[in-house]
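FYI - complex with FE2/S2 (inorganic) cluster, inputs then prediction.
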Amino acid sequence: MSESGTQQPTAAELEDMSQADLARLAGELDDVVVVSSAPKFPVPGTRAEKRAERAVATWFALSGLFAVAFIGAFLFWPHEYKAPDEPGHVMYSLYTPVIGLTFGLSILLLGVGIVAYVKKFFPDEVAIQQRHDGASDELSRKTILAQLSSAGQATTIARRPLIFRTLGLAGAVFGLGAGVLALGGLVRNPWKGGKDAALWHTAWRPENGEKVYLRRDLGIITEEIIERKLEVRVRPEDLDAASMETVFPFRLSDLKDPEHMDHDLKASDVPVMLIRLRPGTQVIQRAGRETYHYGDYYAYSKVCTHLGCPTSLYEAQTNRILCPCHQSQFLATEYAKPVFGPATRSLPQLPITVDEEGYFVARGDFDEAVGPGFWERKS
Ligand code: FES
């Protein structure tokens, strides 16, 4: 006797049972009573059935098509930044909408196809099940597979090759798209461009002889900053002793190109902590970087060398920089070398000075890649 009161079959009886018998038994063991069950298309092969089948297959085929479009766009659409007055700007600005739209439509149409299939082909069934506590017994566990298989047969998917194939195709292409999304960064060659490759430099690198200022984030949209002519550049007197400010690269030409200005504010590798130590603080410089600081001001990358979190906390009493993610600590008075936690490399230091107008400027890019380690880096 099972917990539901159903007479349990012997092992021999169980062996002789068909798939349908096992499925029915599974229902009884679970106290499930099927009140009514009517297939959507009792007579197979009618025109209405074929029409419904084609409609569902169309959703899946469209889903597959958008998944293919997504993979193509992700891999081949021009994604390198282009300023508004440069050729190719329109294509560049469409990159994110296009991959978002194709990926989104692929998922949506796959979902629509599945819902349509359930609505059009699953039998209309009303079943009631009593609740009971605790884990299922051995017999119930054994019969559940038969029940699932029987439920699968009731969906009639096995005799609908068109739907089966289009669903398989959409699922496969969609899976491929998800894989491309995950592995896309590896598919593209990060070393294209040699030493100019993106991993080796940041927007702090001066170009065409133009100064790169240290700017603050006012929390105001770029267009408004430009329109109201707000000053974003940082001067030494803006910082008190034993304080820190996060700064970003800024060029005067950005005032004509808000998108570029925005880009430099949001790029993941540019945030820098500008730290003003107390006057007279003893500092140990790293060999070769003796001139990177300006008086008591030191600029270190804010991207943690462990896993890339922002090392947002500066503890003025101990001159330690803290990363809140896994508690790495770096010593601001000793070229930001790690002194606690999982990080093993110091934070890269940005060479800075002050120009003739009294604003902080970068004297060059970082001399090493910022952020967590990767295969090819040597330091
Ligand atoms: Fe900073 Fe892990 S990311 S300690």
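The chain has two domains: 11-186, 194-362. The chain has a mean pLDDT of 87.
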